[in-house]
Specification:
This protein is an alpha/beta fold. It is built from 20 helices and 20 strands.
Length: 566
């Protein structure tokens, strides 16, 4: 694809890696192209012709490289200088360093369907369908930003940022930086250790698989949406997109199965099977439920192929008003056809949803761990916090902030949760996730040891309506004594303690058959589990014999103990 305009050239070409140096050498022999920036992206795409990124060569002459006119057929009143010298263009390493700066605002200037597949962590999105909507969207998104503060913008290949950067400078923003070469260049620079100088003999059959980047090596998460036959390029294993129907993790765009619609939207495998690939009940030929509640989250703006739009404006105007399957419609169909894998799966399905369920699902996918609070337990924590009408809550053991978000959802309108963990990395990771939630203003973090925080809170005379303990198991008894004897829990409050069945080890404390029959390599692990199981059993016994409280153990996940004053 080659686009030619007075303001420049945007050419995209897919070739074999072994021919790259020869191509660049030939292009730079032309005086006009000698100093041109070539944005090279490496893909693990097979070399077979029918799977190339571009199936055929297209050359188009346009007034502008990227269409920034506000409406079809009308010239833009906004004049921007695509060659503005006041904008800084940062390499990948400088970009990551800039992201760690203070008072930084990060803007993704791509369209909403590109953002939902992958983006730099913490980026604001513009929710645009096409680039021509970007200028108005930027005015709204940056109305609260100080024009002297650092402003970072990025796009797929860097071209849209050139225009947006010039526009922002014209609007008075004095410190604008772009990612040079966009996400494509960032990916290639981050992959440089495994990069692609292929030998001619390697250019037969499939190319070597390019490994995914880890979250430590890339601040970009998920997939990079591209406008060619590949559709998307995986960068990290993170799944940042959400199904348009059920809000569960999804990373595949689908077109509506109704050819007259052909709407592009994200859909998970389960919803695809339930809805047969249709975007809405109307397209599926179904009548939506009259009593159906509105969707739990605002549906994304749909994306349309612009050439089709020009021919069918009236049809697409009507289609914009069509809503996707809402939760009640999908639940009605899924209940009839779904096979539940366990009692917990069934209970979770028929329990009230969490406000931040989409984010929590992503946290579960991106942080697979047996100690992570699951959706059913998360819903219970929210329910319990709401039941006691908690205004002040305390969490001892943060991990990645999953349970923090669940508890905060159950707090009263002006409620506040204090969550504590001694691990700085855990706190940093939790802050990242919580910043994306709707309850971020209800959560404050403390990075210190649990016992030190409790001592500090007792000196302050603090009282909490809801306390959730999920820290070091060996310290459970000491923490319990501190909390209850010091009066940290209010008289009508609730103390919830996790892992009180500890992998079932409390059930067979006198059974050493596992240890006798185990291999030497696993003895230490079994010993540790058995020891911690003994600690938990002693703790459960102590609580049961405490005459000042009532206690109840729920066999949910790894055991959940509820404690309140008599």
């Amino acid at each position: 694809m080659v686009l030619i305009a007075k303001e420049g050239i945007n050419a995209q070409l897919s070739i074999k890696c072994c021919n790259l140096d020869l191509l660049l050498s030939d292009l730079r022999d032309y005086p006009l192209l000698r100093d041109v920036y070539f944005n090279v992206e490496v893909s693990g795409l097979p070399y077979d012709a029918h799977e190339q990124a571009f199936s055929k060569l297209k050359v188009k002459i346009r007034d502008t490289i990227v269409a920034d006119r506000p409406r079809f057929g009308e010239r833009s009143a906004i004049k921007v200088d695509p060659h503005c010298q006041k904008i800084k263009h940062l390499e990948a390493s400088d970009w990551d360093e800039a992201l760690r700066g203070e008072k930084v605002t990060l803007i993704d200037v791509r369209n909403h369907y590109e953002y939902e597949l992958g983006h730099f962590f913490g980026a604001r999105r513009l929710k645009t369908n096409v680039f021509r909507e970007s200028y108005d969207a930027l005015d709204d998104a940056l109305c609260d930003v100080n024009k002297k503060d650092p402003l970072l913008i990025y796009c797929t290949g860097g071209i849209r940022c050139v225009k947006v950067g010039s526009y922002l400078y014209k609007k008075g923003f004095q410190n604008v930086s772009t990612l040079k070469g966009g996400i494509n260049a960032y990916i290639s620079q981050r992959f440089q250790d495994v990069r692609f100088r292929a030998k001619p003999s390697d250019c037969v059959g499939n190319s070597a698989e390019i490994p995914l980047l880890s979250s430590e090596k890339s601040t970009f998460r998920g997939k990079n949406f591209v406008f060619d036959n590949r559709k998307a390029v995986a960068v990290t294993k993170d799944v940042v997109g959400a199904c348009s129907h059920c809000a569960s993790p999804a990373s595949i765009h689908r077109n509506c199965a109704k050819k007259e619609c052909f709407l592009l939207f994200l859909q998970c495998k389960a919803c695809f099977e339930l809805s047969n690939g249709f975007c809405s009940p109307e397209c599926a030929g179904l009548q939506p439920s009259i009593s159906a509640s509105p969707p739990s989250r605002e549906p994304e703006k749909p994306y349309y192929d612009q050439s089709v739009y020009l021919k069918h404006k009236s049809f697409f105007s009507r289609l914009q008003r069509v809503k996707p399957f809402n939760c009640e419609t999908l639940r009605r169909f899924s209940t009839e056809t779904r096979t539940f894998t366990s009692a917990e799966d069934y209970c979770n399905h028929f329990s009230s949803s969490l406000e931040n369920g989409n984010l929590l699902n992503l946290m579960s996918v991106n942080t697979p761990s047996p100690v992570l609070c699951g959706p059913l337990q998360g819903k219970l924590l929210k329910f319990l916090a709401a039941m006691v009408k908690a205004e002040k809550a305390l969490e001892l053991g943060t991990f990645i902030g999953y349970s923090s978000i669940c508890i905060a959802e159950g707090l009263q309108e002006n409620g506040l949760l204090t969550t504590c963990d001694h691990n700085e990395e855990a706190i940093a990771r939790a802050k990242e996730f919580v910043s994306r939630s709707s309850v971020r203003d209800r959560i404050q973090f403390r990075c210190q040891k649990v016992e030190n925080l409790i001592t500090e809170l007792l000196k302050m005379g603090a009282r909490f309506d809801f306390i959730y303990l999920d820290s070091a198991k060996k310290q459970y008894l000491n923490v319990y004594k501190q909390v209850m004897s010091g009066g940290l829990l209010s008289k009508t409050g609730l103390l919830v303690i996790d892992n009180t069945l500890f992998r079932g080890s409390v059930l067979n404390l006198n059974n050493n058959s596992e240890l006798k029959n185990s291999e030497p390599k696993t003895e230490s692990k079994i010993n540790r589990t058995s020891r911690l199981g003994s600690e938990i059993h002693l703790f459960n016994t102590y609580v049961l014999e405490d005459c000042s409280v009532e206690t109840f153990i729920l066999p949910i996940r790894d055991g959940l103990t509820l404690i309140r004053y008599k």
